[in-house]
């Protein structure tokens, strides 16, 4: 019994220590952004990597998500004779929930894993130690530009996701299943409010912080060797995805 209590206590302390280190990491990254955001060229390079290079994945995911919503929504609403409400259902589902969440998950899988692996390799090859030896701040060059780029890129990608998804629902609902196009957009205009748009923006920004924070942290403190980088990358993707879903619930409960 005493051994069990000792193990639980040790586990609790290690978790709290890890959480404290993560909080210090993100606070310091924001401090560096405020004090010295870095050269615009470095930030633009990260925006290109996180944002522009994720466009195709976002476009493809949004297209089929919108089409599935249009298909499922039509047959569900048809049972109640409310096919005209399809535009409202598709738009609200995408803008409030699916747009920010699926965008974050796609960016985590495509860019987050690469960020963690890149920084992890720099750690095990002692490039980060070399920066510290030269009295340079590694977080300023490796973490802060990625964090700022994620904050900028995620809302833009989410907006693209929403527009493409709504058009995907339009293709299925209007062109394939015969919903009146005027009703599709009229009901959408009636039901979508600015608070729904603001909610999506707030979620996207917070998800961008979560992805950059966790992926940079896991890579920065990666273990030794290829196995250490592999574990750090896996942990970064899994933890980021789970935290996005958990944080989405809390934000939804507050913003509704």
TrEMBL record:
Belongs to the MlaE permease family. GO terms for molecular function: phospholipid transporter activity. It is found in: Membrane. Its main location: membrane. InterPro entries: ABC_MlaE_roteobac (IPR003453), Permease_MalE (IPR030802). The chain crosses the membrane at residues 12-34, 55-75, 87-107, 147-170, 197-217, 229-250. This is ABC transporter permease. It is a multi-pass membrane protein. GO terms for cellular component: ATP-binding cassette (ABC) transporter complex. Pfam families: MlaE. Keywords: Membrane, Transmembrane, Transmembrane helix, Transport.
């Amino acid at each position: 019994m005493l051994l069990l209590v000792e193990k639980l206590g040790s586990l609790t302390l290690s978790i709290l220590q890890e959480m404290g280190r993560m909080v210090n990491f993100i606070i310091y990254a924001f401090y560096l952004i405020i004090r010295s955001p870095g050269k615009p060229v470095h930030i633009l390079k990260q925006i290109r990597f996180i944002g522009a290079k994720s466009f195709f994945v976002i476009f493809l995911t949004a297209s089929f998500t919108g089409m599935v919503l249009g298909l499922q929504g039509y047959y569900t609403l048809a049972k109640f004779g409310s096919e005209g409400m399809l535009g409202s259902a598709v738009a609200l589902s995408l803008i409030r929930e699916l747009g920010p969440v699926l965008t974050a998950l796609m960016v985590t899988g495509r860019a987050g894993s690469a960020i963690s692996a890149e920084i992890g390799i720099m750690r095990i090859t002692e490039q980060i130690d070399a920066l510290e030896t030269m009295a340079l701040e590694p977080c300023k060059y490796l973490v802060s530009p990625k964090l700022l780029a994620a904050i900028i890129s995620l809302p833009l990608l989410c907006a693209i996701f929403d527009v493409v998804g709504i058009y995907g629902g339009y293709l299925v609902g209007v062109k394939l299943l015969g919903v009146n196009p005027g009703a599709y957009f009229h009901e959408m205009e009636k039901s979508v409010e600015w608070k729904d748009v603001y909610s999506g923006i707030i979620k996207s920004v917070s998800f961008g912080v979560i992805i950059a924070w966790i992926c940079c942290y896991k890579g920065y403190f990666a273990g030794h060797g290829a196995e250490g980088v592999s574990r750090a990358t896996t942990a970064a993707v899994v933890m980021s995805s789970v935290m996005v879903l958990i944080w989405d619930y809390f934000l939804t409960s507050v913003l509704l």
